[in-house]
Write a structure and sequence with these properties.
The complex is a heterodimer of chains A (about 260) and B (about 220). By secondary structure, chain A is mainly alpha-helical. Chain A is about 75% helix and about 0% strand. Chain A is built from twelve helices and no strands. In chain B, helix 2 crosses helix 3 and helix 3 packs across helix 4. The mean pLDDT of chain B is about 90. The chains are: A mainly alpha (about 260), B alpha/beta (about 220).
């Protein structure tokens, strides 16, 4: 019981610390954590709307793009922020009370909340301004978000350890991770890709996350190829691997 | 009470494996302040971190009765991007003590003036030491683990340390690492000499200092 309350206290303290210092030096503070990605997504949406007028789904390109990009961000922003969770709080780990996992938990909670708010702002703005008719199916959306976050958490926990052990891997991960945005089905629907390539695209679990997320906004979307069993399998396998590596590498995480 | 039971810890860096302590058993009782002596790189700081529980033993165990501070040194456990005040708040939260009270105490003690609200990364080592020292003294522990902290700072700071320690020592004990045998003599009753993975306990601090000096001459 004592252990648990200490962990809660520490996670709470780390949450406050993260919020205060992430954008602390700029006026406005944490508001930027919301405004920055929201403005980014809205801007991208406007640009892509100018290029491609007809969306693959529905009538609004803005909604089509934003649903894809936000689902992607639930994963991408999570790993981007969590990869450095232990490194960024290294000094604070010299307090015996603070465990490496606490830094992960604090950042996970914060990032999930932040991206959710961003999603709310962006999608709310699009629906309100463009008067898009939507028929929202919450279970699909929440399921996709949850899996995106857990998958991101698993990847980041592995990365936290491997980045410390093999600095070269950090470079490689950066290179591989960058074009992920292009092949994850943010702009296109994997349903429309011809047969041999479609199976390749569908290996990427993020494709399934985005398809699942979009299903929540487009009830008519059939999402051919969406395999929730595969997605659950990959997400929990990654999370398990992350926890295993993280637990086995307690020494690396503390000492370095 | 702090008891080592067949405690073993190796330091590993880039393939070099060096024992800090090997199969060491030792009991440190309440009511006595301990000076930790040993040559450069013997692992005194690592030993303090082990006692604090910030790092784990490879083998054996350490039994701790009482509240033990984090190892308090001038290099600091501070997050450089956070201000002095934010660092103090953080510690208050993780140890569950009253935030405002601790901030008031540390502000008074450390005398950082406007720097209290500046990032710790901008501090000099003396300022960090004053903050670290004030912060730990503001939280009540049974054992204070001190790593060379009195080595920095001016005579004014040392006087302050001495005064606070004297009041603290009535209820708490210190486990101190210092290269200055004078400092050890001032604060400690007994001593532990760490040499080649072995901890030797001396009831009288003078004996510990003598043994340490002898080790230094031999090498």
């Amino acid at each position: 019981m004592g252990y648990l309350t200490t962990h809660f206290r520490v996670v709470g303290a780390l949450l406050v610390r993260e919020m205060a210092t992430r954008f602390g030096s700029k006026p406005g503070g944490y508001v930027w954590a919301l405004l920055d990605p929201a403005a980014h997504i809205l801007l991208m949406t406007v640009i892509f709307q100018a290029i491609a007028r007809a969306p693959a789904l529905g009538t609004s390109f803005a909604l089509f793009f934003a649903t894809g990009y936000i689902a992607f961000q639930f994963y991408q922003a999570m790993t981007g922020y969590l990869n450095a969770a232990v490194k960024a709080n290294k000094a604070l780990l010299s307090y015996p009370n603070v465990a490496p996992i606490d830094t992960i938990v604090a950042r996970f909670v914060l990032q999930m909340g932040t991206t959710s708010l961003v999603a709310f702002i962006v999608l709310g703005t699009i629906v309100a301004i463009m008067r898009v008719d939507t028929n929202i199916h919450w279970p699909s959306i929440l399921e996709a978000i949850g899996l995106a976050c857990l998958f991101g958490l698993g990847v980041a926990m592995v990365n936290c350890v491997l980045f410390l052990r093999y600095p070269l891997y950090e470079q490689v991960f950066g290179i591989v991770n960058r074009p992920l945005f292009l092949i994850s089905g943010v702009f296109f629907l994997p349903d429309s890709i011809p047969a041999p390539y479609r199976d390749l695209v569908l290996i990427n679990p993020l494709v399934h996350i985005i398809m699942g997320f979009r299903k929540g906004f487009y009830p008519e979307y059939r999402a051919i190829g969406l395999d929730m069993d595969y997605l659950y399998g990959i997400a929990f396998l990654t999370l398990f691997a992350g926890m295993l590596v993280f637990t086995l590498s307690r020494k690396t995480l503390r000492n370095e | 009470m702090i008891r080592f039971e067949q405690a073993t810890k190796y330091a590993r860096t880039k393939g070099i494996k060096k024992p800090i302590i090997e199969d060491a058993s030792l009991t440190l009782n309440r009511g006595k302040s301990v000076g930790l002596l040993g040559r450069n790189g013997a692992g005194k700081s690592t030993l303090l971190r082990l006692i604090a529980g910030a790092i784990k033993l490879d083998k054996g165990r350490i039994i701790r009765r009482g509240k033990i501070s984090w190892p308090l040194g001038f290099a600091g456990s501070f997050q450089p991007s956070m201000t002095g005040e934010q660092n103090v708040r953080f510690v208050a939260r993780i140890y569950g003590v009253d935030t405002e009270q601790l901030i008031g105490y540390v502000k008074d003690f450390a005398e950082l003036g406007p720097f209290f609200k500046a990032p710790v990364g901008t501090y000099s080592s003396g300022m960090k030491a004053r903050l670290a020292f004030g912060l730990s003294m503001g939280v009540n522990f049974d054992y204070y683990l001190v790593d060379e902290i009195t080595a920095v700072g001016d005579s004014n700071f040392r006087k302050k340390c001495q005064a606070v320690f004297e009041t603290k020592l009535q209820e708490s004990d210190i486990i101190m690492v210092s290269h200055s045998t004078g400092t050890i003599r001032d604060y400690c009753d007994c001593g532990v000499v760490l040499e080649k993975g072995k901890m030797t306990y001396y009831e009288n601090v003078e004996d510990a200092i003598r043994a340490h000096d002898k080790n230094m001459k031999e090498s």
